[in-house]
Amino acid sequence: MNDTVDKLVIFLAKRDGIDKLVKTFQYVSKLVHWHAESTNPNIAQRAKQWEVASGLSRKAFRSGRFLTGFNALRRNPGSTPVFKLLAVLANAGEMVYFFFDHFLWLSRIGTLDPKLAKKMSYISAFGESFGYIFFIVSDFIVIKQGIEKERKLMEKKFVEKGDVKVEESIKNIKVDRVMRLMAVAANVADLIIGLAEIEPNPFCNHIVTLGISGLVSAWAGWYRNWPS
């Protein structure tokens, strides 16, 4: 059986794994910068540099990531017309996000005109937020279906005591529910970050809101991608 170090190595070998680690760096440093800005400018400046470097690194790691959504639609668009529609809308938004994120990264490192950064950031954040709405809706529908199925299985379990298959099915539904709730938490957190870019407001743009949202998203991703 794999121990913690084995699992960590497997986790960090995944693109999503290293992304969640660096995302943790990014938003921890954001909070450190905010906390130290008035009391220790030197520490605050170093934290800001760490935050910027982490953000740019994550964009580099995501090169070609827009193909994931395209492949998901190509291979498994959904089991019903409703899920197919939700999958198209969700993945389309995510593909826009990751595709234009390439140009945002290139403009921020100076390869493209830095003036493009603001426009690319808006388009990318809009696609991201648009897609997350439909991912959230899809997950809630599946969670609701799982609860209904679990109730029926619980009734069957009460009648047919000791049925291993029924118990295994109930366990699988509960595991899937936890994973989907983690996905919802991550998507809601990222939606808040996206809204801060699309429609700036005191709540979404507050450093604490952004920092906590980023960490919630990162740690939910850790949970979902951690090897079992």
From TrEMBL:
A cellular component term from Gene Ontology for this protein is:
peroxisomal membrane
Topology of the protein relative to the lipid bilayer: Multi-pass membrane protein
The GO terms this record gives for MF are: identical protein binding
Which Pfam families does UniProt cross-reference here? Answer: PEX11
Q: Which domain of life is it from?
A: Eukaryota
Q: Which UniProt keywords apply?
A: Membrane, Peroxisome, Peroxisome biogenesis, Transmembrane, Transmembrane helix
Keyword Membrane found: yes
List localization entries: Peroxisome membrane
Membrane-spanning segments? 82-100, 120-143
A GO biological-process term: peroxisome fission
InterPro entries per the record?
Answer: PEX11
Main subcellular location of this protein, as a coarse class:
membrane
Q: How does it assemble?
A: Homooligomer. Interacts with ARC5 and FIS1B on peroxisomes.
Give the family this protein belongs to, as stated in its UniProt record: Belongs to the peroxin-11 family.
Instruction: Tell me, in a sentence or two, what this protein's role is.
Output: Involved in peroxisomal proliferation. Promotes peroxisomal duplication, aggregation or elongation without fission.
Q: What's the protein here called? A: Peroxisomal biogenesis factor
Look up and give the organism this protein is from: Parasponia andersonii (Sponia andersonii)
